[in-house]
Amino acid sequence: MNNGASPHSDPAVDLQRVVLLIEDDEAVRRSLQMLLHWRGYDVRSFAGAAPVLEGHVMDDADVLIADYRLPDGDGLSVLRALRRADWKGKAILITAFPSPTLTEAARAAGFDAVLEKPLRQHDLIGALAG
């Protein structure tokens, strides 16, 4: 019987968890999308903030993974807007420009984790599980 799970998915992952991924680098976005799908997540990916902020894509999302620097905004602004709209999901910020100031601002905005690029698979999976 096929339950729709990837044969390589982690049985601990709820197969219905929806991840919203916002990353402007196409190669990174595709790589993360494949990794997360491989682990059993339903991934919806976007190259910028506008489609997320203008639509209702967060209505059923459990997790936000957002790049800090986006062509049309930044991950902090995205999460602030979602929190104002009463979205309560887990949020992970990814950045190639880490700093203590950014980490502090991300935590203040409501991010559960800040991960440095290049991402290590185990760090991302740990942040999703934690």
What structural class do helix, strand and pairing data support?
alpha/beta
Q: How many beta strands in the DSSP annotation?
A: 7
Q: Assembly type of the shown chains?
A: single chain
Series of secondary-structure elements, N-terminal to C-terminal: EHEHEEEHEHEH
The profile of the biggest β sheet is: 5 strands, parallel
Structural features, described:
- There is one protein chain.
- The chain is of the alpha/beta class and 130 residues long.
- The protein has helices at 26-38, 50-54, 75-84, 100-109, 121-129; strands at 18-22, 42-46, 63-67, 69-70, 73-74, 90-95, 113-116.
- Mean pLDDT is 89; it is low at 1-14.
- A five-stranded parallel β-sheet has the order 2-1-3-6-7, sandwiched between helices.
- The radius of gyration is 14 Å and the shape is globular.
- The protein has one domain (18-129): Rossmann fold (3-Layer(aba) Sandwich), CATH 3.40.50.2300.
- 36% of the residues lie in helices and 22% in strands.
- It is built from five helices and seven strands; from the N terminus they run βαβαβββαβαβα.
- α1 links the parallel β1 and β2.
What's the structural blueprint in terms of helices and strands?
Elements: E1 18-22, H1 26-38, E2 42-46, H2 50-54, E3 63-67, E4 69-70, E5 73-74, H3 75-84, E6 90-95, H4 100-109, E7 113-116, H5 121-129
Parallel strand pairs: 1-2, 1-3, 3-6, 6-7
Antiparallel strand pairs: 4-5
In short:
This protein has 5 helices and 7 strands. It is of the alpha/beta class.
Task: Please supply descriptive tags for the structure shown above.
130 residues; alpha/beta; Rossmann fold; five-stranded parallel beta sheet; two-stranded antiparallel ribbon; 5 helices; 22% strand; globular; disordered N terminus
